[in-house]
Amino acid sequence: MLPSHKLELEILRNAQWGSDRDHDGWPTTMGDLGNIVRRAMECTDTMLEDAMKRLHEDRQLRLRKLVNKFVEYEDFNAGDEEFFYRGDFWLLIPPQGRPYYEALLAKAADEPKPKPPIGFSAA
Question: In the chain, what are the domains?
């Protein structure tokens, strides 16, 4: 699986958690999401932000911010720094994003698992 697809899968896994429970989505911060994703793979905040924007542009992920009312990412006029790095933003997998998420899950399941080393460790 390409690293960019693995990153997208990790983002969508977290969005799925909120999508199943609440139609408003899952509130998170860049710091919290980054910490969760980095347990599965290495990535920078820039890589994470770029992946979310890509998913959003392709209509696989809905990005919103609560500012008195929900404001969609494309309607948020205060800039990316304010959207992603100040307070919560919300992730939601829209209906048209579910097939892509399921395809990434299937691709990840088909990946060979790393084999544990045989023998003694030098530790």
Answer: 3-109 (1.10.10.10)
